[in-house]
Design brief:
2 copies of one chain form a homodimer.
Chain A: H1 3-8, H2 12-23, H3 28-36, E1 44-49, H4 56-69, E2 74-80, E3 106-112, H5 119-133, E4 138-142, H6 148-154, E5 159-164, H7 172-180, E6 185-188, H8 196-209, E7 221-223, H9 232-248, H10 251-280, H11 285-294, H12 300-311
Parallel strand pairs in A: 1-4, 1-5, 2-3, 2-4, 5-6, 6-7
Chain lengths: 314, 314
Amino acid sequence: MSLAEQVLEGNIRAAARLMRDIDDGRQEAIEELKQLYPHTGSAFIIGITGPPGAGKSTLVDQLTASFRSRGKKVGVVAIDPTSPFTGGAILGDRIRMNRHSCDEGVFIRSLATRGALGGLSRSTSDVALVMDALGMDIVIIETVGVGQDEVDIVKEAHTTCVVMVPGLGDDIQAIKAGILEIGDIFVVNKADRDGADRTARELSTMLDMRAATEGSWNPQVLRTEATRGTGINELTDEIMSHRDYFLSSGAIDNFLRERTQRHFMSILRDTLFKKTLQYVAQDDYLSGLIERMTDHRIDPYSAVEEIVTKMMPN
Amino acid sequence: MSLAEQVLEGNIRAAARLMRDIDDGRQEAIEELKQLYPHTGSAFIIGITGPPGAGKSTLVDQLTASFRSRGKKVGVVAIDPTSPFTGGAILGDRIRMNRHSCDEGVFIRSLATRGALGGLSRSTSDVALVMDALGMDIVIIETVGVGQDEVDIVKEAHTTCVVMVPGLGDDIQAIKAGILEIGDIFVVNKADRDGADRTARELSTMLDMRAATEGSWNPQVLRTEATRGTGINELTDEIMSHRDYFLSSGAIDNFLRERTQRHFMSILRDTLFKKTLQYVAQDDYLSGLIERMTDHRIDPYSAVEEIVTKMMPN
């Protein structure tokens, strides 16, 4: 029986193996993903993003418990920062969410940010696809930091929660502005800290300035203290409200089309590149070319033209 | 006279125009870059990275002044976070480094993180190339945040300074670990703050654990108060020491070869993709394919295989 078939039967071990293959960028994983694809599309995907120090892991832990208490099976994809040197996930072996470890309705997976071909958002969406096929009702994607990577990742989610925290300094203004448009729900975590009121107020003001379209979703600013579980139930309710809006307004159709297109483009990019690399790696052609470029005897743009003309004669 | 020729004559306006074309991803920019390429390679590139709130902009301002006082012409590429919604640089119009605005030996350019084809590290290195061709002795690249994007960007630099700041919370541990290997020099800025000793000590301990190879560079932890100019001269000295090490140890040869290869691969990836997109965009072929994928009638991997076989028959 193929890995894909085992995953569709709910086999956790098979899912873990397939995810490892995806994370490692193994070609075999693609055949399995092809088999899974027709059976996916039912999981609801939630993205959790925000700056380091905002308490995202604890919040995800609490959200997991909350969805479990509502009878949902929950998958968690946690993006861990990778050491560029060792290539491994730094936090991959940290003990995450101990209390769910005996719960078969929870599946947690750390994904290394190793910058694999196709990038992190591809791996993330492939891993989410496996969790979907495995029968998880909810898939939570937790990112590290707030950059373009994270924006790309949370685009995979139906609902995106942006987690802020009081007192992170001035540069945070920039972050706020950048992520304002990707958030469906804003959370001020560690709401017992000094400055929580101010952070919440600032966020609300910025959201008010965002031009609201008739019938469009109106993002709220919620407060939580994840370490004590305060505000989690309200956050879960708000996520489900956004889900209802998403499904009933028809916004989901556009979302799915755009996500599919992005996914497809990313695979296309990689595949073209891989096939070309295999070709140019023959007979020291590539290493000779790089030598000439390093010595500034040919510029990289002209070198690329030379290769593309060979590969794509039409 | 072409833009490239004007840049090589030191024309600031021409350089600014070319950089804008690069930032906008315009095809014409490539022909100009081809012309510039043989005349580049003499600027020394410094990367400044670290979490939001670390005071990087002020530090870069001070470093610029310091290099100017040593008779160097300084280019600054500041990566600004982009709003995914508007596509423009949020801080692009902020008044940066006022005091250098009348100095012809300083050229400052904000680059939007708009996620252009080829990614930010490509645009950054192209803009640095223009500054190099323009005759800048030093090019400082300042990133926002600490993620994979930033790691990719600072790989373009000969010397990378990682700027930390006391009291950014626990998640910072993860960031530290991730950037430990990319830093040639570590800076604890805002060194007058509580916890500066602890941050510096922690960094030193982590650096000590890094296996040192015989004759390799030994990164130091420096302290600065950028707002008051304290420690800037020492930092400038340390950067020049690293430069000397880089040139005399021969480490530069490997660095240049790897950077050229990365640059070339990135251009190759984009060009293959662009050419393929032009092809599939004809006759509604692409939109039909995306429709079939969205309806789960074909998986994206099989769709890509179909196209690649057409484009690359060999």
